[in-house]
Amino acid sequence: MLAECIESSISLAKAARDGLYFSGQVLSITPTTQEQVEILKNVSTQYETGLWQPVSPHNIKELKQVHLYLPGNSSETVKNLLQRHNIAHEVMLPNADEIIEMQMRNDSGDPRSGSTFYYRYHTLEDIYDWINRTANDYPDKVKAILVGSSYEKRPLYALKLSLNNRPNKKAMWIDCGIHAREWISPAFCLFFVHYSLSFYNVNTEMTQILDNMDFYVLPVMNPDGYKYTWTNRRMWRKNRSPQKGTSCIGVDLNRNFDANWCTTGASSNPCDETYCGSFPESEPESQAVANFLRSHKESIQIYLSIHSYSQMLIIPYSCSMDEAENHSELYEMVKTAADEIRRYYRNTYTYGAGAHIIYLAPGGSDDWAYNLGIKYSFTFELQDRGRYGFLLPPSHIQGACNEALLAVKTIVLKVMEKPQASMGSRQAGPAA
After folding, report:
1. Known catalytic membership, residue 332
2. Is the pTM of this model over 0.85?
3. Can you give the pLDDT at residue 73?
């Protein structure tokens, strides 16, 4: 199936070059009036399009940039409609199909073929094979833990990295791929495990971290959706569970946790991208992760969920406008991490509480983990800011992973400086 998909992408790209086919495109549109806002909301729901930014039509606002993906078969229709209503647009990505083909190109599936393995995107089958190989190659350091399974009965494997047997070690949880189309996210999880194993006793900071902390790394939290993006629909976001009473498929797993579940910022409509599910943890994927975190909450000190795109380091809360109890502490950590990224890589990351720097997004895993008691809870939105969006080329993987790695190191070292137990009283912090 993968070979057919790649072959199809190649033929589409060739047809586009030959003038026989309109390639998929990504448009940047900034509505200037409420009328234009309403037209864009209609376009994003009534036509075959993919709303990249914001993720929900509800969040389209005047003077706020919208990133809209148009498949080849609807690009001219939508652009003509925008023109008729005098809505200015810029083509950010004119050749989306060629970029998709480039993302799927993979010359080697062997993790032992060298570090270039980690600077390509991989099929779900390749990732499962990598999990098995890594656990087998490092039996004294890595353990594959079956956390649960997806709706379509695919396993959810987390790798536990434990580099020594020190008693009472704290741990960090990292999950990737909660949204299927965000391919840079699983790529980071693979990169992080490889880096940790390769640079233990080489890199001073990584050695210090791994001597004192274990890691649980879940490379693909949404395997059904991820598989679907490789075989059927590259821009798929949700999981793949059928919903009663509708032909629409899937739940947004990052709206399915019990943190102000299904309030403003999530949708109760199964056809929407931000559908919250029928009840909190209705989905086997979110329930599996929640159960694991509940059973390990005494040892897991840091929670991190990896997403894309927009280059943000996010702290609670996203589910409400309330300030987290240790807001100023968390804020200082992400500010320091963003400063480090700017210093080393000359790239800018926005930081702060999600509800303030993006919009309300209830039911998120990070807010739920925070309320569970994991008081160092973060979401990273990796590269880029929209030039390629979800179609970040393989040549950008290394840079994106290096930036996220630096942020992880910075935050973990800061947490390790803290007393294990104390949280202190509610603190006032700078506005996010």
Report:
1. no
2. yes
3. 85
